[in-house]
Structure formats: structure tokens, C-alpha cells
């Protein structure tokens, strides 16, 4: 069973992740903020469901609780949101609101900028090095922090079948050639954070994960019998390594399961979601500096991610004044 640790107990959370591959973080969010993010995603989820029901069904698909809290004025996003299905592989009962980082101020500025969460992410994904060919007196310490890889809300409807067990780091073609006796810090390239929009249970498809699988060699079979549900109360979050075997569970209830997912990677990797094409200059300039850095708009030491030899955000501001 997934172990629970208070978000602010950083040392215990890190130790649990190193041992199990994932941890349930308690006291991650207040209920009011959960409701805010649910409302931020609702109009996009609702519109996609309408679009998908036309494409896949002769009558609308199962009602989602997010429809009940949909913003009243969404006409300006309908055309955009109706084309949000990035993957044909998603069943019609599952809908997704992508680009959540830009669409939800609460998620971006409150949830993801919490110092305790930042400390845990940096422990596993901060990259620090000193090139061998640099002279000691000239050597700058290279240190780059993790960046956002993707952010989306998933509404998993009734009758959705369980996913196959998988590791998220396969998108960066990571291979696991040997088994680890104990966790090797620096071996992971990504992490995932799942925040419960509603209470998640084994019955409604809570995320399944295999404790200890982050230490396995790739040749070891992943058996569903070894997977355990990471059941979340509203306000809790499941944080796990991209090397950990996991899967979305089957929803055998009559209600949708809503979860907000945020994924991070090392700063030198290409993010999974190409979000920069969608965020406008005006939107990004309203974000906090911490959020701008997390999304890749500030240079990492010494010059990773520059734009015209300076921070991308500096160019935004310069063009604003021009």
C-alpha cells in the first residue's frame, strides 16, 4: 500500500520515494483550492465531452461532475477546446484538459510553488555537474532545476478499463538495464504528481503502482498482481518517479474520477507537452518569476534556454516596451 507522508516532512517524503518509488503527500492542498482548479478545468472538460459524444455516440456520453461547475461564459473557448484530444487512443469516456499550467492560476502559483514540493523535486531532478575539461579556477558550477513537462486534468468516466503497467520515462527512451539494490540518486529523469479532484478509490480507478519497481531492470515483467491502488482523499497528492511502474485503474463506478496531473523532467530534456506554442506573451508576463522559471522562460546556469542571448522573459518585456 502506498505510504502517506505530510508534504512538509521533506526528509521522510524523500526517503519513502527512494524506497517505494512513490508517496502519497497529505496536506497538499486545501479543499477550496481543489474546487478552484476543478472549476478552472471544467469548461474545457465539458466542451470536449460534448464534442466527443458527437463523434463517438448517437447520444451524449456519461455525465461528468465537472459539468456541474462549468463556467457560464465559455463560448470563446469552445472551438479551441473541442480539438483538445491529443490522442486517439484515449477512450471516449476519458477526457483531458491540457495546458493546465497556464489555465489555472491556483495550480500554477499555489500548488506547484510550494517550497516543500520544490525541495523534493529538486532532490531527485536537479542536475549539478562540473565539466572535466574546465580549469578549476574558471569552473562554474552547472546547476539546472527541473522544469514542467506537461500539465493536464483527466476526467476518467465509468467503464474505463485499467491501463497496462508502464513507466513514464519511456517517452525519453530511458532503459533500465540493471537492477538496483538501493536507489541511485540521479538515475531518474522525470517525476509525476497527481492531485485528486475527487476522492479516488480502487473502485473508481485510483492510480495503480508497483512499490519498488523503480529499482527493477527493464527485463523484469510488470505484473498487475503486484500493483496497489494509491487511493487519495481530496487534498492529497501522489508523487512518483518516472521509473516507477504504474497505471490508471479501472473505473467500475457510475461516476467520473477527476485528477489533476503535473509532470516534470530534467531541464535538458524536451518536455512532453509543447506548451510554449499556446501561451501568449501577455499570459506569461502575469506569472510569477518562479512559475516562469518552472516553465522554461528563464535561463538555467550558465546559459541553458537563452533567447537572443538573454532570458526569454527579458525579450518578452523588451518587445512589450518596443
Give a brief outline of the structure:
The chain has 322 residues and is α+β, with helices and mostly antiparallel strands. It is built from 9 helices and 12 strands. The N and C termini lie far apart (57 Å).
Q: Which class do the helix and strand fractions yield? A: alpha+beta
Encode the helix/strand succession as letters: EHEHHEHHHEEEEEEEEEHHH
Instruction: Tell me the radius of gyration.
Output: 20 Å
Number of beta strands: 12
Helix content: 25-40%
Kindly, what is the distance between the CA atoms of the first and last residues, rounded to a whole number of angstroms? 57 Å
Spatial shape:
globular
Please give the order of strands in the largest beta sheet: 1-2-10-7-12-6-3
| Continuous helix count | 9
- Low-pLDDT windows of residues: 50-65, 70-86
Largest sheet: 7 strands, mixed
- The overall pLDDT average reads 86
The amount of beta strand, in percent, is: 15-25%
Explain what the structure shows.
β1 (4-6), α1 (10-20) and β2 form a beta-alpha-beta unit. This protein has a 7-stranded mixed beta sheet with strand order 1-2-10-7-12-6-3. Strands 9-8-11 form a 3-stranded antiparallel beta sheet, with no helix packed on it. It has a two-stranded antiparallel sheet with strand order 4-5. The protein has helices at residues 10-20, 31-56, 75-81, 100-103, 105-111, 115-125, 281-285, 289-294, 312-321; strands at residues 4-6, 22-26, 94-98, 127-129, 142-144, 147-156, 190-196, 208-209, 228-229, 237-241, 246-247, 257-265. It is α+β, with helices and mostly antiparallel strands and 322 residues long.
Amino acid at each position: 500500500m502506498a505510504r502517506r507522508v505530510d508534504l512538509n516532512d521533506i526528509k521522510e517524503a524523500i526517503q519513502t520515494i527512494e524506497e517505494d518509488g512513490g508517496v502519497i503527500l497529505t496536506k497538499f492542498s486545501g479543499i477550496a483550492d481543489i474546487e478552484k482548479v476543478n472549476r478552472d478545468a471544467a469548461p474545457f472538460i465539458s466542451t470536449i465531452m460534448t464534442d466527443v459524444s458527437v463523434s463517438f455516440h448517437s447520444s451524449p456520453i456519461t455525465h461528468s461532475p465537472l459539468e456541474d461547475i462549468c463556467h457560464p461564459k465559455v463560448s470563446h473557448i469552445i472551438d479551441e477546446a473541442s480539438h483538445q484530444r491529443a490522442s486517439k487512443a484515449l477512450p471516449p469516456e476519458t477526457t483531458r484538459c491540457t495546458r493546465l499550467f497556464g489555465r489555472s492560476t491556483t495550480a500554477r502559483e499555489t500548488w506547484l510553488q510550494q517550497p516543500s514540493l520544490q525541495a523534493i523535486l529538486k532532490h531527485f531532478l536537479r542536475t549539478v555537474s562540473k565539466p572535466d575539461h574546465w580549469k578549476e579556477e574558471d569552473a562554474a558550477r552547472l546547476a539546472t532545476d527541473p522544469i514542467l513537462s506537461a500539465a493536464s486534468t483527466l476526467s476518467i468516466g465509468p467503464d474505463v478499463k485499467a491501463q497496462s503497467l508502464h513507466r513514464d520515462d519511456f517517452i525519453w527512451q530511458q532503459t533500465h538495464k540493471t537492477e538496483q539494490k538501493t536507489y541511485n540518486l540521479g538515475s531518474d529523469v522525470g517525476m509525476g504528481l497527481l492531485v485528486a479532484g475527487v476522492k479516488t478509490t480502487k473502485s473508481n480507478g485510483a492510480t495503480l503502482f508497483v512499490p519498488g519497481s523503480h529499482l527493477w531492470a527493464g527485463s523484469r515483467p510488470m505484473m498487475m498482481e503486484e500493483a496497489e491502488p494509491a487511493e487519495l482523499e481530496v487534498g492529497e497528492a501522489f508523487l512518483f518517479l518516472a521509473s516507477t511502474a504504474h497505471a490508471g485503474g479501472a473505473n467500475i463506478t457510475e461516476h467520473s474520477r477527476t485528477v489533476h496531473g503535473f509532470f516534470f523532467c530534467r531541464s535538458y530534456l524536451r518536455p512532453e507537452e509543447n506548451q510554449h506554442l499556446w501561451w501568449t506573451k501577455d499570459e506569461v508576463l502575469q506569472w510569477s518569476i518562479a512559475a516562469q522559471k518552472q516553465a522554461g522562460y528563464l535561463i538555467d546556469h550558465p546559459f541553458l534556454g537563452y533567447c537572443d542571448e538573454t532570458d526569454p522573459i527579458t525579450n518578452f518585456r523588451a518587445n512589450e516596451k518596443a
